[in-house]
Amino acid sequence: MADHQNISELAEKAGAGHRASLESLVSLFHKDIFRMAFYRTRSRMDAEDLTQEIFMQMIKGLPGLKDASRFRPWLYRIAVNRIRDFHRKKSILSFFGTAADMEDSGCTTAEDTGNPLDSLIQKEFLGQFYAFTDSLSRLEREVFMLRFAEQLGIKEIAGALKKNENTVKTHLYRALKKFRENSGLHEILKGEIS
């Protein structure tokens, strides 16, 4: 990821209509935004659609962005809101997808490596991981994913979610406590699958 100052400069130029800067921003953040959408939708197709919508909204909103130094939390706020809208539109059953949905999504898996043990470990991990994230409240899940999947800091998460930093810290603490209590994930991460 490019440094903060470089991202701010790109955002300023892109907001002024500089096409190459806009393309650079999309290139820098595409993988992270797609991953975030995929983790939340568990569908490659839905994640691709959401990623495109997020970047379209970014392009429309960039000229109005007052503080280019806040670009990253601003972009993640767009992503969080778009993903929330997506889930509001989906039925409760599609929100809690199954492992079959994950396989049907076309996600690259350990099966592609040809190693059946890797495939088994990955399927077991994904099942445990999705069960864990489904056990979290919406805010705990968003904070957890932004912190660990997207590697945002507390301040950036607070900006993306429009929450104060103490609220973010509280929900992160609760999510981490639940993670530590989830023995299934710990076994997989330690390589103790029986």
Quick take:
The protein is mainly α and 194 residues long. It has helices at 4-15, 19-41, 44-61, 71-89, 92-95, 99-104, 116-135, 138-149, 154-161, 165-181, 183-190. The radius of gyration is 18 Å and the shape is globular.
Topology:
Blueprint (H helix, E strand, L loop, with lengths): L3 H12 L3 H23 L2 H18 L9 H19 L2 H4 L3 H6 L11 H20 L2 H12 L4 H8 L3 H17 L1 H8 L4
Descriptive notes:
By secondary structure, this protein is mainly alpha-helical. It has two domains: 1-94, Orthogonal Bundle (Rna Polymerase Sigma Factor, Chain: A); 108-194, Winged helix-like DNA-binding domain superfamily/Winged helix DNA-binding domain (Arc Repressor Mutant, subunit A, Orthogonal Bundle), CATH 1.10.10.10. It is built from eleven helices and no strands. α2 crosses α4 and α7 (116-135) packs antiparallel against α11. It is globular. Mean pLDDT is 81; it is low at 91-113.
What's the name of the CATH homologous superfamily of the largest domain?
Answer: RNA polymerase sigma factor, region 2, helix turn helix motif
CATH topology of the largest domain: Rna Polymerase Sigma Factor, Chain: A
Give the CATH class of the largest domain.
Mainly Alpha
The CATH architecture name of the largest domain reads Orthogonal Bundle
Q: Quick one: biggest sheet? A: none
Net shape: globular
Q: What is the arithmetic mean of pLDDT?
A: 81
Percentage of residues in DSSP E strands: under 5%
By helix and strand content, what is the structural category? mainly alpha
How many individual domains? 2
- Rg from Cα: 18 Å
Helix/strand order, N-terminal first: HHHHHHHHHHH
Helix tally equals 11
- State the helical fraction: over 70%
Number of DSSP-assigned strands:
0
